[in-house]
Amino acid sequence: MARPHAVAIQLTDADRAVLLDWIRRRKTAQALALRARIVLACAEPAATNTAIAAELGLSLMTVSKWRRRFAQHGLAGLDDAPRSGAPRTILDAQVEAVITTTLERVPDNATHWSTRSLAAHLGMSQTTISRIWRAFALAPHRTEGFKLSTDPMFVDKVRDIVGLYLNPPDRALVLCVDEKPSIQAKSDTAPAIPMRPGQTQRHTHDYIRHGTTDLFAALDIKAGTVIAEVHQRHRSVEFRHYWTTPAPTRARSSSAGCSGIHECICTLRRPRRHGSIWSNAGSPYSQHVGSSEAGFVQPVRWKMRSGPMWPRIMLRPSPLSGQSRLTRF
Prior knowledge:
Layout: H1 13-24, H2 30-42, H3 49-56, H4 60-73, H5 92-104, H6 115-122, H7 126-135, H8 154-166, E1 172-188, E2 207-220, E3 226-231, H9 236-243, H10 246-253, E4 260-266, E5 285-289, H11 294-306
Parallel strand pairs: 1-4, 4-5
Antiparallel strand pairs: 1-2, 2-3
């Protein structure tokens, strides 16, 4: 049987760019990348199937097959042709029943469906239910929390603090300040039993409560150091005393050549301005007040994780700090 003549291949710039992208991309299937190499080689002037097969280490029939497929169907012809395979055993109506039952009904003796209970209820296999749940990203056993903030300055606080982290001013000292109030000071009613072979360390189930304590801490963003102090009460007096301790004093002294001092505070309630604490620092002082609630922390995490590609550049001044350079992110 005579071999068919080689079909001429004419590539457009768009087709060539797609084929090169398939070859260079790491996640491209190796079979598809090989077909792209064959087509690119066939597009070269005076390229023969025999020479291409010898160059790529393939058979002549393989090169001829993918040359014809591309000439007839273009880029779509390089994909695998549809195969019949086994007939479907799960119909669309059954998939719809799984989804609607999962979303709209609950079992009589449980708070949510499991793959086995739903399979027994609908007369399917547990594996089928699991595949449908994964395909539609359904997880009845999982719950997450959320909070709707009523703070009218919520968006401005997020922009102010995240903008400071993503685009801090040059030679600036940035301190992230937070508090942990009402920490219980507890002790066991009896000494702990130490660990022994075959037995873990054990503590008494009851305890003696010795009141509460409050923790104030600040993170130096650039140095990565934590400045912490514990107090028995939670007042502005303790908070101001915290900034006059030796560690914060050393942090202020190290800011002698800084263009500004920026303090990010996430507290249970908005603190009063205490710019007088930094009066001896010799640098401009700015306070950025956030919120400790989960409705504020979660958007900050999303925005920090997405980086500067997520939002637009905000050039307007922040109503909290009054400095436009802190809101560019």
